[in-house]
Amino acid sequence: MASTNDLKNGMVLKLDGGQLWSVVEFQHVKPGKGPAFVRTKLKHVLSGKVVDKTFNAGTKVETATIDRRDMQFSYMDGEYFVFMDMDTYDQLMVDRKSVGDAANFLIEGFTASVAQHEGEVLYVELPAAVELVIQETEPGVQGDRSTGGTKPATLETGYQIQVPLFITTGEKVKVDTRTSDYLGRVNS
């Protein structure tokens, strides 16, 4: 348990019957008349939904401990992604739902941050950008280059993104894992 006076950005609270909410920002407010209160912006740990919530100053709130560890993706085992803790070499099986959109950019050997609460995997978070090889894309048509157009390209993970027309099969590109946007070529 903690008091609303002790809130910090990144702290995880257990509210509304055990749901986990991360504190995005907070502000202590002392109006001219009336009691002080704390205005917060909270993000749901699983869904990513952001809400504004106001607490009376000094109110007790339950905190939750989230264990975030960097783990290396090893391989797929059916519908499960197997991650290995690089310190203990323990293996952890994570279902597709918990991996979420990160599955689009995971290849063997990639390091991801795996967040757990009481032994349950909450989510898997990749770095903001990853480098992947273009497995297949159509060749750009001569004369189209001046328009700044894009074309579909399949990454080595099987996920499809939009890339500029000059990108060819076999090139390594940088991809934003949050938006699936092409960020640029990677010079080998």
TrEMBL record:
GO terms for molecular function: translation elongation factor activity. It is found in: Cytoplasm. SUPFAM superfamilies: Nucleic acid-binding proteins, Translation proteins SH3-like domain. Keywords: Cytoplasm, Elongation factor, Protein biosynthesis. Pathway: Protein biosynthesis; polypeptide chain elongation. The keyword Kinase does not apply. Residues 130-185 form the Elongation factor P C-terminal domain. Residues 68-122 form the Translation elongation factor P/YeiP central domain. InterPro entries: Elong-fact-P_C (IPR015365), NA-bd_OB-fold (IPR012340), Rib_uL2_dom2 (IPR014722), Transl_elong_fac_P/YeiP (IPR020599), Transl_elong_KOW-like (IPR013185), Transl_elong_P/YeiP_cen (IPR001059), Transl_elong_P/YeiP_CS (IPR013852), Transl_elongation_fac_P (IPR011768). Pfam families: EFP, EFP_N, Elong-fact-P_C. SMART domains: EFP (SM01185), Elong-fact-P_C (SM00841). Involved in peptide bond synthesis. Stimulates efficient translation and peptide-bond synthesis on native or reconstituted 70S ribosomes in vitro. Probably functions indirectly by altering the affinity of the ribosome for aminoacyl-tRNA, thus increasing their reactivity as acceptors for peptidyl transferase. Belongs to the elongation factor P family. NCBIfam families: efp, PRK00529.1. This is Elongation factor P.
